[in-house]
Amino acid sequence: MTAIALTIAGSDSGGGAGIQADLKTFSALGVYGASVITALTAQNTLGVQGIFDIPPDFVDKQMQSVFSDLTINAVKIGMLSVPTTIESVASGLEAGFSGPVVLDPVMVAASGDPLLTETAITTLKTRLLPRATLLTPNLPEAARLLGKPVATTEATMEAQGKALLAMGPKAVLMKGGHGEGPEAVDLLITPDGTLRLATPRIPSRNSHGTGCTLSSAITAGLAKGMTLEDAVKAAKAYIQAAIAAADRLDIGHGHGPTHHFHAFW
C-alpha cells in the first residue's frame, strides 16, 4: 500500500518552507503527499511580504475532500495563523482522522516575520496540543508557548519540554537549532524519559524551511510505519544532509532553502 502523508500548512511562494517544503520532503522520502492550505504567503528568501488566510470554511472543504478519498497514514500541521483556522483543523481531525499527528507550532519565519497571532496561541494550546502525537517547537517557540524565557541550557530545554508534555501531546521534540556551541542538540521527551539527539552544527545561511522540513520528514517516517523514535532519528539524518548540501544551491538573495533532493541532484 502506498504511504500517504497530509500536510496542513501555509504556502511559501518562494518554495523553501511551508507546503512546498513539506511536499518536497515527502517525495524525497518516498511518500505520497497531499495538502490542505491554510494560508497564502507572499514570501521569498528575504522575508514575508504578506499573508492571506484561507477562509475557515474552505479549509474545512479541503480536509473533507482529502479524508473522504485518500487513506492518510500521518498528518503534519504547520502554519495556522488565526484561531478560526485552528478550530477548523481541529474539527476536521476529530471528524476524519485518528492516526499520528506531528504539530510544528510555526510562529516566526526564519527572517523574523511573525506567522502566528497572539490570540491564536491559546487556541493552539487548547485545541491541537492534546491531539498531537509529537510537538516540534524550536527554542523560541517553546518559550512563547510557555510564557518563559528562551532556554539556554539542556536542563532548561528538558524542563520546558516536560512542561509542554503536560499540556497533552504524547511526545515533544525540543529542537536546539537556535542554541549555540559545536553541536545542535535536540531532546525527544516522552512519558518514558528523554532521548538526547546531537549532531554537528553546520554553518550555513541557507536555513530557510529547516523546521518545516524536519517535521515533515518525521511525518513521512510515521506514514511508512516507523516508530516515533526511529522516525525522528531518520528525519534528523535527512535534515542534516539537506543542510550540508544547501550551499550547492543558489536560490535568492537572503536565507536560501535546504536541499530537499540532495540525494538525487
How does this model look, in words?
With 265 residues, the protein is an alpha/beta fold. The protein has one domain (4-248): Ribokinase (UDP-N-acetylmuramoyl-L-alanine:D-glutamate ligase). Helix content is 38%, strand content 22%. The protein has eight helices and nine strands. The protein has helices at 18-28, 56-69, 83-96, 118-127, 139-146, 154-165, 210-223, 228-244, and strands at 4-12, 32-44, 47-53, 74-77, 101-103, 134-135, 172-174, 183-190, 193-200. The strands form two sheets. It has a six-stranded mixed beta sheet. A three-stranded antiparallel beta sheet has the order 7-8-9, sandwiched between helices. Helix 1 (18-28) crosses helix 7, helix 2 (56-69) runs parallel beside helix 3 (83-96) and helix 7 packs across helix 8.
- CA radius of gyration is 17 Å
Number of H/I helices: 8
Low-confidence segments:
none
What is the strand tally? 9
Shape by Cα distribution: globular
CATH topology: UDP-N-acetylmuramoyl-L-alanine:D-glutamate ligase
Tell me the span between the first and last alpha carbons: 27 Å
Strand content: 15-25%
What is the string of SSEs from the N terminus onward? EHEEHEHEHEHHEEEHH
Largest sheet: 6 strands, mixed
Oligomer: single chain
- Main CATH class: Alpha Beta
